[in-house]
Write the structure tokens for this entry.
Amino acid sequence: MDVSKRLRKADAISAPFCPCREKLRGDVMSQYYVGVKIVFAWPEVRDGKEGYAVKYPDGYTSWSPKEVFEASYLPMGESNDNMVTPKMVDSFFANVEAKALEDGKTTMVGVETVTGFRQYETSSCVDPANFDLEIGKGIAVDRVRNTLWKCLGFVVQWGRSGLKAGNK
């Protein structure tokens, strides 16, 4: 076995999110996957538990507990426009912090998203006499919003079309 295979096996065994050694099968290592789907869902109670009935694009229907479903899916609205909306983008903002930098003319903004990802942006004015933290915050937050918009466009496209065969 070459060194790179042994290192990959060692990494998988020691990885904090690898639940057990049984994930390894001979020389073939099991792996984790990430996927994106656009589904149609509605609240439904089963056996006294709140959750969602979920209909997949191929027509398959399943049920998910409320906590699991809401931790995995972002509401897109009632129409199937497959588009990013301002409401979707704004729903990704969990916390916004702004501070003035030492130069007296720059605002730095940190936005924490609902996924825990943090995005930072700055805005500056030419003359410190014109500095306004709230104006700078608004400009920097708009830049983060535009970045999230682009990223959500990528996610919606992936959910809508899946991965193209042969490009994996």
In short: The first strand starts at residue 24 and ends at 25.
